Amino acid sequence: MSATGELPHPDRADLTLTGVLFALSDPERLAIAQQLVDGPLDMAACSVTDPTMPKSTRSHLMKVLREAGVIRNDPNGRRRLLSLRRDDLEARFPGVLDAVLGAADPLPVLEPAPTD
After folding, report:
1. What three-state secondary structure class fits 83?
2. What are the tens digits of pLDDT across the range 42-63?
3. Could you give the residue ranges of the DSSP H alpha helices within 36-85?
4. To the nearest whole percent, how much of the chain has pLDDT over 70?
5. Pair 42, 55: CB distance under 8 Å
6. Residue 108 above 70 pLDDT?
7. Quick one: which of 57, 92, 47, 86 has its CA closest to 70?
8. Order of strands across the sheet with 79-84?
9. How many percent of the chain have pLDDT more than 90?
10. How many whole angstroms separate alpha carbon 35 and alpha carbon 62?
11. pTM to 2 decimals?
């Protein structure tokens, strides 16, 4: 990570189909990508299907998606902003992102934890 908090992202030309498909093959990573379809989200707002998942595991999920070129992870003050690299993915692999996201099961509805 640079002094400005920037993380490395692969150039569009360096994206590989196998890397993108691998990143989207995990249900948790796929769920994160699905959440970004409508636009960028604060990293803290991205939920995973397992609310007990350790923060380190969530960070690893984001790293795999970023290194494959599926998402951007940019500094936003003291937080991180995640966005889907739709334009880059569409330019390299037309239709693949929509096909994968469209074929995926819908996101589960997370029930709030009981407040007893």
Report:
1. strand
2. 888 877 777 788 888 988 999 9
3. 55-68
4. 85
5. no
6. no
7. 86
8. 41-42, 79-84, 71-76
9. 57
10. 13
11. 0.83
